[in-house]
């Protein structure tokens, strides 16, 4: 139907163009044709007049022949008139022939123009046909595009409906998650309360049992003292020696006193908690490492951070491969335990909470993340910085976090509400952070160490070093601050006097990057730092001298060092892919 309609339209258009051409051209030649017809009529009339004159001439000649004498004069006058009329008619005929020739030439020229116009019309008709075909092709493409557009609109509407449905589902699931989290928090609170009650009950029962045993023991001792038994010399010597060993003044001769110390030892062991039993192992004397126990490939690429867990049984490393890896330290070897994923860029720093149950990592993707160590699950993602997060630390309550970034800001985060509580503009890129209960200390690119009051969000004081600050660490008493800078110096700052108390340097020691991390030993008596040449340097804080240089383990610059809380191991990582576990064993 569309093809027929297009065909009728162009035919009608051609007919109208032809009629218009006829009207225009006929109007131009209409006067010429009219004059030409008049000339033809006049020519025919002249021919008639000529015939009539010829007839009159013959008649006059005949009459002259009949009466030559009578009408001789009249004939001469008639001949003169006829001669004049003939000349006049001849001139008119000549003029008419001339106009006829001119008109004929005009007609020829107009015919040529008509032929030229006809050719132009044919050419235009051919172009019109091509244009019509092109229009038909374009109309077909336009129809296809309309169909495609309609399909895309339908698909877009379907996707929009699906997105709306998914958004509704997501909101419902988020609400459900929130309720579940609240319920879980309530259950945990109740469970903790019940556990506390059970612990109180158990402690009460233990106390009752202890009192009952003590009463029973006192009763047995009283009965044994009242009972008159013969004393053998050997028994007397035995009882006296045992009493002397225990430091008691009891000299009653019986076998019961020999059982009394054993009962007392059983009572003490029953009342001792597992934490008290492990306390001696946690206060082990610090060992200065001398040997690389285990050298292993920790990551695919550069390793930026390393940290021991509070119990010293686990080691965590973070690298540019966007992963945090956990290693279990067993008999001087690091065995893989798990991998924490979720970061979108390289890891810059890591830290365990005080219980060792959560791990915090800062990343180059402008975020900090928290995982639970037991199930390796990502729990929190803290976003808000506009630059790389170079350091993040738990506060002492483990419920808040401080992060420092390349965007020259520090942010305080609340893990309960999962929001940023405060943002402080430091004025320079923050390379490392350490925290006390109410103070945050930050090391910056502008060579300054700044001390912040968390409550007032203001700088309490600041201390300028001679180079860009790369690392900070606190001793166990939190009275001394260890700082490493790009001037290849490691300094101890006394926080009570706010002054540099001690400076360490060594021949060959060179800070390898703006993020080289150094560490105190657990008791604060030693300082360990990695150098750009791959050597590990250890200084004695008491003497201020270099204690050891360990250069057989790394093949590239050391990025970070961590000393285990037990004091038995030191771990270091490098710009290559290796990590090294050191000890004196």
TrEMBL record:
<feature type="repeat" description="WD">
    <location>
        <begin position="296"/>
        <end position="329"/>
    </location>
</feature>
<keyword id="KW-0813">Transport</keyword>
<keyword id="KW-0853">WD repeat</keyword>
<keyword id="KW-0472">Membrane</keyword>
<feature type="repeat" description="WD">
    <location>
        <begin position="382"/>
        <end position="423"/>
    </location>
</feature>
<protein>
    <recommendedName>
        <fullName>APG16-like 1</fullName>
    </recommendedName>
</protein>
<feature type="compositionally biased region" description="Acidic residues">
    <location>
        <begin position="232"/>
        <end position="241"/>
    </location>
</feature>
<keyword id="KW-0963">Cytoplasm</keyword>
<dbReference type="InterPro" id="IPR015943">
    <property type="entry name" value="WD40/YVTN_repeat-like_dom_sf"/>
</dbReference>
<dbReference type="GO" id="GO:0000421">
    <property type="term" value="C:autophagosome membrane"/>
</dbReference>
<feature type="region of interest" description="Disordered">
    <location>
        <begin position="198"/>
        <end position="283"/>
    </location>
</feature>
<feature type="repeat" description="WD">
    <location>
        <begin position="340"/>
        <end position="381"/>
    </location>
</feature>
<dbReference type="GO" id="GO:0005829">
    <property type="term" value="C:cytosol"/>
</dbReference>
<dbReference type="InterPro" id="IPR036322">
    <property type="entry name" value="WD40_repeat_dom_sf"/>
</dbReference>
<dbReference type="Pfam" id="PF08614">
    <property type="entry name" value="ATG16"/>
</dbReference>
<dbReference type="GO" id="GO:0016237">
    <property type="term" value="P:microautophagy"/>
</dbReference>
<dbReference type="GO" id="GO:0015031">
    <property type="term" value="P:protein transport"/>
</dbReference>
<dbReference type="InterPro" id="IPR019775">
    <property type="entry name" value="WD40_repeat_CS"/>
</dbReference>
<keyword id="KW-0175">Coiled coil</keyword>
<dbReference type="GO" id="GO:0042802">
    <property type="term" value="F:identical protein binding"/>
</dbReference>
<feature type="domain" description="Autophagy-related protein 16">
    <location>
        <begin position="13"/>
        <end position="203"/>
    </location>
</feature>
<dbReference type="GO" id="GO:0034497">
    <property type="term" value="P:protein localization to phagophore assembly site"/>
</dbReference>
<dbReference type="GO" id="GO:0034045">
    <property type="term" value="C:phagophore assembly site membrane"/>
</dbReference>
<keyword id="KW-0072">Autophagy</keyword>
<dbReference type="InterPro" id="IPR045160">
    <property type="entry name" value="ATG16"/>
</dbReference>
<keyword id="KW-0677">Repeat</keyword>
<dbReference type="InterPro" id="IPR020472">
    <property type="entry name" value="WD40_PAC1"/>
</dbReference>
<keyword id="KW-0653">Protein transport</keyword>
<dbReference type="Pfam" id="PF00400">
    <property type="entry name" value="WD40"/>
</dbReference>
<dbReference type="InterPro" id="IPR001680">
    <property type="entry name" value="WD40_rpt"/>
</dbReference>
<dbReference type="GO" id="GO:0034274">
    <property type="term" value="C:Atg12-Atg5-Atg16 complex"/>
</dbReference>
<feature type="compositionally biased region" description="Basic and acidic residues">
    <location>
        <begin position="198"/>
        <end position="226"/>
    </location>
</feature>
<feature type="repeat" description="WD">
    <location>
        <begin position="551"/>
        <end position="585"/>
    </location>
</feature>
<feature type="repeat" description="WD">
    <location>
        <begin position="440"/>
        <end position="462"/>
    </location>
</feature>
<dbReference type="InterPro" id="IPR013923">
    <property type="entry name" value="Autophagy-rel_prot_16_dom"/>
</dbReference>
<dbReference type="GO" id="GO:0043495">
    <property type="term" value="F:protein-membrane adaptor activity"/>
</dbReference>
<comment type="similarity">
    <text>Belongs to the WD repeat ATG16 family.</text>
</comment>
<feature type="repeat" description="WD">
    <location>
        <begin position="518"/>
        <end position="549"/>
    </location>
</feature>
